[in-house]
Input
Amino acid sequence: QVQLVESGGGSVQAGGSLRLSCVVSGYTYSMYAMGWFRQVPGTEREGLATIDDYGRTTYAESVKGRFTLSKDNAKNTLYLQMNSLKPEDTAMYYCALGRIVGTTLAPRSFTYWGQGTQVTVSP
Output
């Protein structure tokens, strides 16, 4: 069974940094995309950054220049380096995987999801 486990969330002050990690297990297909998403209670889930099997990345305008997505295939781990954090970045952050050709930020395109890790940014 496919499983994704996020870690690295926490509480930081505005301007600080966090690095999120997502460990993936149980996925045996070669073609796929992975990404990071976030959600505030009462709002729709927002796509932040995705990467396909060729290493091509797509970023949301809200995080472009501040967040960096990377993948370590040897460790089966996806990372999100978050710099210059703002209070509006406060949310539950989720890692996701899907058998996708091309790139997309749409949550509906991703099949497997982690349980999330909380990020809180204070003023």
